């Protein structure tokens, strides 16, 4: 592997030296401050409540719910860990399907009347754990992420894709065995789905969540609709039509669940799907791809144009939304831009660039949108690859107003209380720092529950670890 590992940088200078070598304009503070007055300790005041610091837990599912969509002990453990993390914003917990055909796997959580009390208990247990550890919850904001997995739906069997798409896609259709329009959701089906999102939000409000995230990222349905340039009818073509799904859900929720706030997690740029090259498995753009079908893309399939994502943010502001979570691409078809990693997941490809390039790309795109939309509260993603230097970069980007809140994904699977440690001025525990082994992604791609098998002692001891090792050999 050509790229130096982050763990090999022994000093902040080594780390920033590497950034310079790569020509990356990513700020990083040499010293990280602690306490309420530190950049990361500052409060944000929103309509929906107070957020006591600048750390956010990003949504992360575990493929570990029951077949009828209720949480299991594994799900509860993850949410309790989110509660003890010290972060004061919980962006959605994990993707929760608004109905059965939209589940990304047969173990994804689902919100309905029958599951309401258990979905509620996830929140109360998280809040309880936070109260026990930090003695207050008045500055903790907890939302629920609502989803329909669209093209990536596998509601009935782990191995059976049952895609429902927004439009045809020459690179992705063959990967799902799609050869005609029959998997496309019709306009009438989308209208019914909008009602299902609204009904799900009404239930989320009953379950005490402060906001719902109307998921528009990672290639799932909401995101695919944003790039539905070729889709005919009321939900495709023009910007107005491509955002109709979001607008109608927001209007429906305002009418049916007054007082419930909303956020939108959006892939603010996208590249064409990648595939492993035949020679060395390094990722290359899929030759079959249509570069136009990328929301936030510049038409080349490999570049960024934030004009439409910025228009989308303006629209969200006009609709009274104040929370946006910025992410990029898709973990299925271009994971190197979505969750930069040294070691790819088993269905991925070797990184085509130093993963620091991917981290910086997301941070700078988010910074541009934060600059253009000062009235939104914007959470950034994709920081985990920074590893030991995550707190240094996090402080620098918050301090300089490049983002309002730093979202943490994989890092809290391996090191759940990293935010608490940073804010209390403790030295990071190196053996808990995520090294982006990708086992938490490889496991579910092989039908195994997700978790940090290499570093979390709980998962290390699970029998599934052996199964995962076998799957990786295969
Ligand atoms: C195991 C796993 C599960 C995830 N599940 C979700 C999810 O349910 N919803 C979502 O929006 N993103 C999901 N993500 C993406 C993360 O929220 C985040 O964007 C990504 O991991 C990059 O951030 P990081 O570099 O801090 O890990 C998941 C990521 C991982 C590793
Ligand atoms: S399995 Fe653990 S170390 Fe590997 S990427 Fe996931 S959280 Fe990080």
Automatic annotation (TrEMBL):
Gene3D superfamilies assigned: Aldolase class I
EC number(s) recorded for this UniProt protein: 1.6.99.1
Keyword Cell membrane: no
Pfam family membership, one: Oxidored_FMN
Protein name: NADPH dehydrogenase
Molecular functions (GO terms): FMN binding; NADPH dehydrogenase activity
Domain NADH:flavin oxidoreductase/NADH oxidase N-terminal: 43-272
Keywords: Flavoprotein, Oxidoreductase
Highest rank taxon of the organism: Bacteria
């Amino acid at each position: 592997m050509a790229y130096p590992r982050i763990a090999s940088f022994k000093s902040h200078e080594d780390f920033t030296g590497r950034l310079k070598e790569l020509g990356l304009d990513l700020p990083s503070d040499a010293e990280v401050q602690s306490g309420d007055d530190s950049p990361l300790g500052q409060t944000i005041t929103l309509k929906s409540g107070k957020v006591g610091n600048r750390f956010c837990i990003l949504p992360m599912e575990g493929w570990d719910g029951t077949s009828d969509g209720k949480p299991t002990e594994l799900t509860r453990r993850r949410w309790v860990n989110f509660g003890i993390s010290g972060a004061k914003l919980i962006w959605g917990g994990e993707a929760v399907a608004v109905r059965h055909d939209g589940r990304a796997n047969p173990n994804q959580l689902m919100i309905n009347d029958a599951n309401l009390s258990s979905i509620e208990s996830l929140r109360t247990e998280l809040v309880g754990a936070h109260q026990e550890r930090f003695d207050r919850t008045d500055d903790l904001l907890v939302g629920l992420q609502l989803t329909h997995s669209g093209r990536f739906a596998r509601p009935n069997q782990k191995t059976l894709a049952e895609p429902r798409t927004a439009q045809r896609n020459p690179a992705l259709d063959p990967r799902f065995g799609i050869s005609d329009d029959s998997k496309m959701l019709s306009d009438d089906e989308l209208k019914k789905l909008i009602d299902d999102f609204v009904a799900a939000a009404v239930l989320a409000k009953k379950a005490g969540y402060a906001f719902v995230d109307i998921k528009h990222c990672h290639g799932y349905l909401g995101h695919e609709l944003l790039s539905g340039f070729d889709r005919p009818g009321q939900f495709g073509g023009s910007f107005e039509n491509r955002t109709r799904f979001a607008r109608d859900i927001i209007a429906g929720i305002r009418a049916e669940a007054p007082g419930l706030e909303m956020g939108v997690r959006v892939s603010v740029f996208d590249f064409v799907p990648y595939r492993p090259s035949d020679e060395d498995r390094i990722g290359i753009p899929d030759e079959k791809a249509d570069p136009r079908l990328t929301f936030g893309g510049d038409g080349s399939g490999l570049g960024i144009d934030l004009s439409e994502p910025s228009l989308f943010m303006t629209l969200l502001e006009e609709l009274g939304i104040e929370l946006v979570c910025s992410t990029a691409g898709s973990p299925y078809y271009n994971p190197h831009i979505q969750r930069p990693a040294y070691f790819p997941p088993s269905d991925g490809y070797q990184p085509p660039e130093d993963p620091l390039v991917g981290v910086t790309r997301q941070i700078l795109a988010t910074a541009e949108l934060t600059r253009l939309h000062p009235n939104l509260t914007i959470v950034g993603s994709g920081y985990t690859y920074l590893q030991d230097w995550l707190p240094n970069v996090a402080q620098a980007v918050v301090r300089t107003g490049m983002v309002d809140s730093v979202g943490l994904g994989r890092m809290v699977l391996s090191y759940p209380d990293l935010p608490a440690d940073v804010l209390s001025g403790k030295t990071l525990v190196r053996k808990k720092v995520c090294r982006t082994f990708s086992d938490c992604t490889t496991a579910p791609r092989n039908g195994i529950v997700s978790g940090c098998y290499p570093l979390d002692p709980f998962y290390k001891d699970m029998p599934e670890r052996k199964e995962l090792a076998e799957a990786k050999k295969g």
